[in-house]
Design brief:
This protein is α/β, with parallel strands linked by helices. The chain contains 7 helices and 7 strands, in the order βαβαβαβαββααβα. α3 packs across α4. The relative contact order is 0.18. It binds zinc ion (ZN).
C-alpha cells in the first residue's frame, strides 16, 4: 500500500506524522508531497535561503518517518487557486498511484492549505479519467482520502489512528523543522524552550484524540466515506 500526504508547507505533515511513521513501520510506502518549500515562513531569513533550509529540514523529517518527499515549487503564501495546481496533482496521483491520500480538509483556514486540499481532492478523482491527457496515464480512482486540519465549519473527526508507539518519532521528526521553532531573540541557552512548548501542545492534542478513541495517543482525520471504509484501506487503523 502507498500512502501519499499532500501538504503546502514543510512541517504541515506534523498533523499526520505519527500515522505516516506507523504506516511505514508496518512495511508500507509513504510519500510526502509539499507544494511549496515554505519560503515565507520566517521573520529574518531571506526567502531563497529559507527555502533551502526548509527543504533540508523537510528531508530529514521525512527520513525519520521513513517517507520519500517531493516538492512542487509553488511559492509559499501564493499557491494558485486555478487549474494549474490541480493538473500538476493529477500527474502526481497518476505517477505515485496512492492507495490512501491524506490532505487538508478543503474548508480549512489559510489559502495555501485550502487550495491544496481542494486541488488534491479534485485531482484524486480526475486522475482516473482516461480521456484527460497528461504526462502520465490514467490511474484507478484513489480508494480513499482522509482530511486533516480544522475546517471553518464544524466537521467531526471520524477516523482515529492509534499513534501511542510513534509519539517519539513524531516529536523527533517535528524537531527537524528548526527554522519554525527556534526563537532567535532569546538566549542561546534557552533556545529549546519554544520546542518544549510546542511538544507539550502536540502531546496534549494527541492525548485528547486518544481519549476520544480509547487509546493513549491518537491522530484524528475526517474521512470521505466513514470509518467502515477506513478499516479496509488503513490496514493499521484501530
Ligand atoms: Zn502550512
Amino acid at each position: 500500500m502507498h500512502l501519499v500526504f499532500i501538504g503546502a508547507h514543510p512541517d504541515d505533515e506534523t498533523s499526520s506524522s505519527g500515522t505516516i511513521a506507523k504506516y511505514t513501520a508496518n512495511g508500507h510506502e509513504a510519500t510526502i508531497v509539499m507544494t511549496t518549500r515554505g519560503g515565507r515562513g520566517h521573520w529574518e531569513i531571506p526567502s531563497e535561503e529559507l527555502e533551502r533550509i526548509r527543504t533540508k529540514e523537510m528531508e530529514s523529517a521525512a527520513k525519520i518517518l521513513g517517507a520519500e518527499v517531493i516538492f512542487l515549487d509553488y511559492k509559499d503564501a501564493d499557491v494558485p487557486a486555478g487549474d494549474a495546481l490541480k493538473e500538476e496533482l493529477v500527474d502526481v496521483v497518476r505517477n505515485l498511484k496512492p492507495d490512501i491520500v491524506l490532505t487538508f480538509h478543503p474548508m480549512v483556514w489559510r489559502d495555501d492549505h485550502k487550495r491544496v486540499g481542494q486541488a488534491a481532492t479534485e485531482a484524486c478523482f480526475k486522475a482516473c479519467l482516461p480521456l484527460l491527457e497528461t504526462r502520465y496515464l490514467a490511474h484507478r480512482p484513489v480508494p480513499d482520502i482522509y482530511f486533516f486540519g480544522s475546517p471553518m465549519v464544524p466537521v467531526e473527526k471520524d477516523v482515529y489512528i492509534d499513534v501511542s508507539e510513534y509519539m517519539d518519532v513524531k516529536m523527533e521528526s517535528f524537531a527537524q523543522h528548526r527554522s519554525q521553532w527556534v526563537k532567535w531573540d532569546i538566549d542561546e541557552d534557552d533556545s529549546t524552550r519554544p520546542l518544549e512548548e510546542i511538544r507539550a501542545r502536540m502531546l496534549h492534542r494527541a492525548r485528547q484524540y486518544g481519549l476520544e478513541s480509547g487509546v493513549e495517543y491518537a491522530e484524528a482525520f475526517m474521512s470521505q466515506y466513514g470509518r467502515k471504509r477506513a478499516l479496509d484501506f488503513f490496514p493499521t487503523v484501530r
